[in-house]
Amino acid sequence: MDRSQPAVVVEDIHRSFGSLKAVDGVSFSIDHGRVVGFVGANGAGKTTTMRIMATLDSPGSGRVCIGGHNVVHHPAKVRRLLGWMPDSFGTYEHMTVLEYLDFYARALGFKGADRLRRIQEVMDFTDLTPLADRMSNKMSKGQTQRLCLGRALLHDPQILILDEPAAGLDPKARVELKNLIRILAQEGKTILISSHILSELGEMCDSLLFIDKGRIVHHGDAESMVRGTETADETLVHVQIAGEPVRLIEWALTAPMIKIEEETKRGARLRIQSVDEATLAGVLRRMIQDGLPVLDYHREERRLEDAFIDMLGQIDKNTFKAPPPGGVLPKNTEDAK
Amino acid sequence: MNAAPAIMDFPDSLSPMVVKELRQGLRTRLFGGVLLTLHLMLVLLTLMSGGAENAAVVSGWFDGIITLVLCIIMPLRGFSAVADELKSGTLDMLALTRLSAGRIIFGKWAAIASQSLLLMLSILPYVVARFVFGGLDLFAEVMALFYKWLAGVVLAAVIVALSTQRQFWLRAVIVFLPLLIGGCGAASFMMMSRMGGGMPPGTLLSFFIKSGGGGSALLVLGIAAWAVFYFLSLAATRIAPTASLLSVVKRSVNLVAMLTLMLVGWLSGSSAAMGSTAVGVLSFLMMDALTERVNEVPSVYAAFYQRGWPGRAALWLLAPGWVTGLVYSALLVALVSVYVGWTSSVEGAKLVAVRAAGTWMIAALVQLFSTRRSSDLLMPFIVFWLLVNVLIALLGNLVLMSFVTKHTTARFTCALPQLLPTGYATAQAADKAELLDLGMLSASIWPALLLIFAVFAWRQARGARQEGWQMIHGHEGGVAI
User: Fold this and answer.
1) Tens-place pLDDT, residues A239-279
2) Segments forming the whole domain that contains residue B59
3) Residues A32-47: what's their mean pLDDT?
4) Cβ(B25)–Cβ(B32) below 8 Å
5) Among the partner residues B23, B98, B296, nearest to A107 by beta-carbon distance
6) Above 0.85 for ipTM, yes or no?
7) Are B248 and B150 in the same domain?
């Protein structure tokens, strides 16, 4: 694979189903060895984009290159580089885990001892060896999902596209999946992973791609996403005091640069008109100097989900003015500006 | 790392798809149940076949059970073969392996054919037993068993092809309605031959009976192989990626097979039989060519442009899509018409063209009513074909009967290509030529209409052809056709 070019290049792709524009000018690129989260609501165009990248669909216009190969012109070359895990775990009746992996290994061209060795490696990696003789359609969701990941890894692809791999999994299975993805990332694989669970993506991914109504609306890391939609000159802080919270409220009403956002059971959420850390520390110092028995004082971290929802709201109002994100700036983010 | 798993039940040389399907298929309750029930019944029948007085009844049951298993139950195992993969999303995963659409479909069919073969071989001892104890003609019985298996595997190819349709009800109608009609037809045909009517002259069956021996067996095998290829390639086209060039292989094979059929007819002096067979086959080949989606993938066209002017010429006939399919079907119609005209009569050739216009009519109706909603043209084609033919069979022929009883020519039949052949056959001798010319004139509306649609569809794919041209010749290389 040519490492001088990005692992994935998507340029201005469009795809419509009848009058519905599923993908409307999506552009982005992913460098080798990066783990990128693909985020968007249902129907936003994630799966269509991923299917085009996986050579399972063709763009109406635009260009997609995987490992330097155009997905439309050279689908066979792309498939050799690509591991695809769809959102539906496709297993078969009357087929054991071992037979399932054996079938796909045969279909991928593995022969004899080489095939058996590769199956064993994949089963060890995904911890499926104890389940080798279990019927593949009679396993838990977590086990089935590991089996499907194992199938996608059989030919040791350098680029992985995982469509909603965590959907419907219990917390334990999610942690296991996260661990597997972390190991794959450490091995230097390029991974594009879509999910609804933004906080998990934020932890796992180097950067995030946000798609809405078939258009990329943000491309950057989780922090830039949160910062990008945060109001730049204010900070929300949680304060708890010993005793009646009314003392805090009375104090806040007279304090400069502070507004009460919300009263809580043991204190309040205060909006301080500054993001400067020294100013925030000064507010706490003043509280203590004024005799308030402060038990807890901390900045409210914005969740990724909130940032995403805020951003979508801002886009709807055509007021989105995000700073250029990290990574490669998508073309239609510029349009959104 | 743990010890390597032991899984060596099938050799590497076997297609992965066949291995998968056999592993699954041999484990199903249906296969086990059929195998067990079949053998129980055959044991009973073999024990019963000792007495000469009930030999005919036992023989009938023996044949019936074997026919039911090999020609109905086993082929029907392919009913959901591809639909299940489509629904569960596993077909996408298969598409990303090295398995081509053709190999996937072939594997599905080959597994059914192999299981069927396994059943057939397990029946052989009973045939030998009946030969030993009942004095039957062993060779004839074994050949009959083989032909039943062959009919079953051809039917399996048809059903696997139809299993590419997702909707269960539509699939059920399309599979069971022809099965019912075919069953009734076969039953009435058997009754006719038992009552002394014999085989209708000028049919393929009459040719087999006339020629007898190895030649006809070879032809049966050849036609069965062609039918299997036709239906499997039809199915493969429906699941193949848009960038595939399956149409090149299948149209070439079909053209060569058609030419071979006509050549065999000419060389063996059975031109009438082969001509009527060619006319029957023509509708199927036209259906396949006229129901392919117009391809808008540049690399598909680039593959033709790469081969210079022969490639550019071949593009008009072999490139995927119904537009080139129209040109291809016109070539086939011309070939068969010339053959029939040369070996039979000019009227016969004109009737071939009218029948072909009936198929173009269905394709035009599909273009008129279906394409905006769906990219699938085959299923609407089959539905329209069934609707038009059932309606015509019911209404048209009823009306036609009143004309026949009055000994007058039913001139209205020239309005519909599907009715004209019957109208022509029952017309008064003096009116025949006029009716046929009128019918041809009226039927020409349909290819003309289809041609108009084709021009628009061809224009739509112009961008893809242009890009394909540039892939080979660069921006300075002129313009694509």
Assistant:
1) 999 988 888 999 999 888 898 888 888 899 998 988 888 99
2) 15-199
3) 89
4) no
5) B98
6) no
7) no
